[in-house]
Specification:
Layout: E1 3-7, H1 13-24, E2 27-33, H2 37-49, E3 54-58, H3 64-78, E4 83-86, H4 101-129, E5 132-137, H5 140-144, H6 150-170, E6 175-182, H7 195-203, H8 213-224, E7 235-238
Helix pairs in contact: 1-8, 3-4, 4-6
Length: 244
């Protein structure tokens, strides 16, 4: 029997690779997007050409009404929600002293409050079944902090705290909550870096390369599997040894 996954921010980067991998592994996949409509529709059509079971849903993770509508759509379309992957996120580099209140609120809203909205929205269904998995995408900067990314680091650290606390709370309901902390991954978030800077980051990584979205997607697929049923509340660093 197919399982069903909602993947937020699934139009590009890590979310796209994750949607592709889960669809190829016999999941029904809700491809969530907000602004990247062209990329989302292209992904949808590419996967449908392979006869994969996917659906699109536009929703802003900071808007609870839209998120609840996505939850209802998933249940009406596929009849279940087995897995939520909270991947949607933004990044911004700025000196802390230069951050505006709007910069702070936007970062926390999408990267942390969005996880709250999406998770709480699906939990009523999961708790009633005493079954389900939640995978949150944080960052190594949520573990160790990054200069000029204080608001990003704070939001991602919040995701880690949410993961650990919620795993304890949901354990009796047989729901696993885990977190992936990606390292330096080749996505659009690296666009501000030039080739010399990217080469330097690879040199600082013990495995001497940057990560790929597929590296993260593969870990998510394992955490979603039955082989990971005894894993909860964990933060798994996929970073090539950049942070140990």
């Amino acid at each position: 029997m197919k399982k069903t996954a909602i993947i937020t921010g699934a139009s590009r980067g890590i979310g796209r690779a994750t949607a592709e991998l889960f669809a190829a592994n016999n999941y029904n996949v809700i491809i969530n997007y907000n602004h990247s409509a062209d990329a989302a529709f292209q992904l949808y059509h590419d996967l449908r050409k392979k006869w994969y079971s996917v659906a699109l849903f536009k929703a802003d993770v900071t808007n609870r009404r839209e998120i609840d509508a996505m939850t209802d759509y998933c249940l009406n379309t596929f009849g279940a929600i087995d897995l939520l992957i909270n991947n949607a996120g933004i990044a911004q580099s700025s000196l802390f002293i230069d951050l505006s209140p709007e910069d702070w609120e936007k970062m926390i809203g999408i990267n942390l409050t969005g996880v709250f909205h999406c998770t709480q929205s699906v939990l009523g269904y999961m708790i009633s079944r005493k079954k389900g998995k939640i995978i949150n995408i944080s960052s190594i900067w949520g573990q160790v902090g990054a200069s000029c990314e204080v608001h990003y680091s704070a939001a991602k650290a919040g995701v880690i705290g949410l993961t650990k606390a919620l795993a304890k709370e949901l354990g009796p309901s047989k729901i696993q909550v885990n977190c992936i902390a990606p390292g330096i991954i080749e996505t659009d978030m690296l666009n501000p870096y030039n080739q010399e800077e990217l080469a330097s980051l690879a040199d600082q990584t013990p495995l001497e390369r940057l990560g790929t979205p597929s590296d993260i997607a593969t870990c998510a697929l394992f955490l979603a599997s039955e082989q990971a049923d005894y894993i909860t509340g964990q933060v798994i660093g996929i970073n090539g040894g950049f942070v140990i």
